Amino acid sequence: MTRFIFRLPDIGEGVTQAEIVAWHVRVGDRVAEDQTLVDVMSEKATVDMTSPVAGVVVAINGEAGDFVPVGSTLVEFEVDGVADSSDTKPVPAAAVSPKPAPPVKAPAKQAPKKTPVPPVMLAEPESAIRASTDTPLASPAVRRRAHELGIALQYVPGSAAAGRITEQDLDDFIARGGVAAAPPIDSQGDRYAKRHGVRETKLIGLRRRIAERMQEAKRNIPHFGYVEEFDMTELEALRRELNEDRRENRPKLTLLPFFMRAIVALVPEFPHINSRYDEEPGVLRSYDAVHIGIATQSDAGLMVPVVRHCESLDLWGCARELSRVTAAARDGTATRDELSGSTITLTSLGTLGGISATPVINAPEVAIIGPNKLVDRPVVRDGQIAIRTLMNLSCSFDHRIVDGHDAARFVAQLRRLIEKPARLFMDRP
For 236-252, what is the mean pLDDT? Predict the structure, then answer.
């Protein structure tokens, strides 16, 4: 048996270090050639590191969240028939498989078992590994055992695919001193027992990148918020009719394709809204092309796939591309080009949306548009009370670029198009 050292290779594009996101092996594991060892993230991409040899893992270096320089040791193996590592060279970049990293950061993969989750007991519960409304992935046997032990699975890190919790994950959680997040209700029904546990979760990978980008956007961009009420009654009637009569090869229409077409119609009048501000040289780049980013929630977190050249798409084309790129973002197949280059962003929580929001600008853009929830309310029209479908539109603008007067004019024109949707299909003079 000889020792083989696997080092972080040069993954190109001037990258000098990478962050460890998740380990897929542990000391003592026997791995096959080309088996995934670890995921690392550079400034440009998330990369799967695969094993160049078959052997037994005798040491791993670094934990999830650590930054390691190119050329440093990642994994040490015991292998048969391979020269000592002193004679080996760093594995070339061809040994890794790059995956696109989104510009808008999403939560990192669930940390594997190697990542400690300290069972620190503090005053009051503030956070958990999963939201209480999330359903942890686990087999019936794991769920039954956790129930018998009085352990809430949302506090147990899962190491399998998609964060699935295994028997070993449960054992590791108990070995680290984990306790039930909520004591099981006994025969006396003590459901009001006080809770005191707090779990600390280190932000790594995409989740940390999200935090950094959001903080940077709020720190550097003077956000100016603007909310206006839209009467959506006519547009909703048109949307329902178009969906009922649509051909099988056409996607179902949501509100967003109408807003996409309205933005396209207004860009010639408000070119600075469809812009990116390069802060370092102080240059504003206003685009004739309209590349609309669509804030999309995926299992990996918030991502912003881009519908490119919306000016060249009709309503159905916008809907089709919208469906395609958001599906790619959710299933993890979106390319780097599909996750970058937007000139303005639309964000919507759909039926979950509230009455108003304060969206954060997707830097270096200068505007973000956020439709909210539709509600039926009584309003006065021509002296009569009528039930209308209303919606608030929440927008944020970069006040360095967009003055309040211009923002109000833009939203007023947007409202004019949306409230009378026939105008969307007419050529503007």
Answer: 91
Domain assignment present for 135: yes
pLDDT at residue number 230: 97
399 is catalytic: yes
Q: How far apart are CA 383 and CA 340, in angstroms?
A: 49
CB 252, CB 394: distance < 8 Å: no
- Check whether residue 365 and residue 232 sit in a common domain: yes
Local confidence band at 64 (pLDDT 50, 70, 90 cut-offs): confident
pLDDT digits (tens, 9 = 90+) for 24-59: 998 989 999 989 898 888 765 677 889 999 999 999
Last residue within a domain, chosen from 65, 100, 135: 100
128 and 92 fall within a common domain: no
pTM given for the model? 0.64
Strands (E), 321-420: 344-346, 367-371, 375-381, 384-398
Query: Which spans in 203-354 are helix H?
Result: 205-220, 233-245, 256-266, 315-331
Please identify which of the residues 48, 309, 399, 406 carries the catalytic annotation. 399
Residue 144 CA: distances (Å) to CA of 111, 113, 159: 23, 21, 19
Burial of 422 (0-12, 13-18, 19+ CB in 10 A): exposed
Q: Final residue of a domain: which of 39, 74, 100?
A: 100
Instruction: Indicate if the pLDDT at residue 121 is higher than 80.
Output: no
**Does 233 share its domain with 160?**
no
What is the amino acid identity at position 355?
A: I
Q: Which of 113, 107, 79, 96 is nearest to 12 (CA)?
A: 96
Whether residues 287 and 339 fall in one domain? yes
Q: Which of 196, 403, 405, 427 is catalytic?
A: 403
132 has pLDDT over 60: no
Highest mean pLDDT among 106-110, 243-247, 372-376: 372-376
Between CA 69 and CA 67 the distance in angstroms is 7
Question: How high is the pLDDT of residue 196?
Answer: 81
Q: What is the CATH number of the domain that holds 189?
A: 4.10.320.10
Can you read off the two tokens belonging to residue 122?
A: 């503090």
What is the span of the domain harbouring residue 138?
116-201
Whether 403 is catalytic is yes
Does pLDDT of 161 surpass 80?
Answer: no
Buried-exposed string 10-40: b where 16+ CB fall within 10 A, e elsewhere: bbeeebeebbbbbbbbeeeeebeeeeebbbb
87 and 151 co-located in one domain: no
What tokens appear for 307 in the block?
């519908």
Amino acid, res. 428: R
Mean pLDDT calculated for residue range 310-335: 93
Q: In terms of domains, do 121 and 185 share one?
A: yes
